[in-house]
């Protein structure tokens, strides 16, 4: 997969501060006053912005080009509807012959399952070619294409919606592909706007409390049991360790596990 941040709000700090100060605004020149503030004053203002209502965060936007991800992933991605816009590669007007697809790691570890999966993908590709060669419309032939086919999607999202998405999708309970994409997106944002770090990350890191308190299979909770309770300030070690904890420790996704979570 590949995640590129192709556009973003360049004067984000000034916009965040000014959008919070508009209730006191008396003149359009007030924005110029914000721009002229020194770095220490702006840091103090940002701390206030990040610890109050999230309205100002909606004035900062990021546009991502996300490539070589599955349709299974994008079906989940587009469920984030508030504060976002999407444009996706079409299977209706593009020939998908010899399509690329994702093979889940869990299937690669089992020879029988891996073989069956690969054979099924080859069969689907063969049938798709057969339909196209027989004159079928691409928009009709696409009906047999698999959910794990690779696709590209363009996404614009504001900072408030982005933080909320990460709070849920960086949790170990989220599917591995979404976690991987979310980590790359966060890395891109921190590259251009490092000041956003306090509000980004999984819910336990950003909010200092578990978003899914009934989910007792979480490896983070095992190491940091305090996230299962009230708010805590002991978050530094969790932020440092969180990425390593979540890489290969996907949660149990059986029906019983989800009922308990």
Task: Explain how this protein is built.
- It is a single chain.
- With 261 residues, the chain is of the alpha+beta class.
- The protein folds into 3 domains: 1-91 and 153-201, 2-Layer Sandwich (Gyrase A, domain 2), CATH 3.30.1360; 96-148, no CATH class; 203-261, no CATH class.
- Helices cover 46% and strands 12% of the residues.
- It has 13 helices and 4 strands.
- It has helices at 12-21, 30-35, 39-50, 71-77, 105-108, 111-133, 138-141, 159-169, 176-192, 203-206, 219-223, 236-246, 255-260; strands at residues 2-8, 61-70, 84-88, 150-158.
- Strands 1-2-4-3 form a 4-stranded antiparallel beta sheet.
- Helix 1 (12-21) crosses helix 3.
- The model is unreliable at 251-261 (pLDDT under 50).
CATH-defined fold name of the largest domain: Gyrase A, domain 2
**What is the domain total for the residues?**
3
CATH class of the largest domain: Alpha Beta
Largest sheet: 4 strands, antiparallel
What's the number of helices?
A: 13
